[in-house]
Amino acid sequence: MKSENIQTFQRGKSDKEINLKEYYDVLKKRVWVILIITAITTMIGVIYSGLNSSPLYQTSTRIIINTDSEYMKTLMVMIKDPIMMQKVKEELRLQKSPESIANQIQVTRIDESQVVSISVVDSTPQRAVSIADTTARVFKNEIASILKFKDVQLLSGAKENPYPINESQSRTIIFTFLFGLAVGVGLAFLLDSLDVTLRKHSEIEDVLGVPVLGVISSMNKKNLSINKKRAKEMEVRREAADAK
Fold this sequence. Notes:
Elements: H1 2-29, H2 31-52, E1 57-65, H3 69-78, H4 82-92, H5 98-103, E2 105-109, E3 115-122, H6 125-146, E4 152-156, H7 169-194, H8 201-208, H9 221-243
Antiparallel strand pairs: 1-3, 1-4, 2-3
Helix pairs in contact: 1-7, 2-7, 4-6
């Protein structure tokens, strides 16, 4: 019983090795399909990332608003008010509408304290700094003029951030590369399954049910000339042997 189990294990191991070799042969034979599909999808990913992704930079400035929580909400809303944004636009001479500038700004209260962060995202780090600092300064001046509220202090200015916050282009490229690789491998096995040509002795034996005794090599002009030359040499040798 033990010997039978060993033979079964060895047979299963042998079948596994044969299958792995067949898989390798399929991938080797259709490697051009895999390379072409992977190259195409990766190129699409590169082009898509280049057209739809431009680097964006973020920075923030902080201010202190000395008031209670309810009035704090009103003041935070007024930071992005069109009046404030129009002043920012004029000071920086921006070719954008006040609404567009407001969309670049995010106002948040830090840990329920009196510290408010004015965060700005822009396509250039220098302009992001300018918008953040100018917004804080304009708000401090205008809120004192409009509401007579003077308890606003500038806590910290914005700093230039040289690193973009949307470095996700590489993810798209990696995804398209892996997608193309998977599609290429799948297409290689699909083409192999549709190919009914018999190329191996084992395949012929499985179909015909008889053993292969020999193989006739394919003939072409080169092989034919070589065979004729060898035949003439053998004939000359035979004649020389007969003469002796």
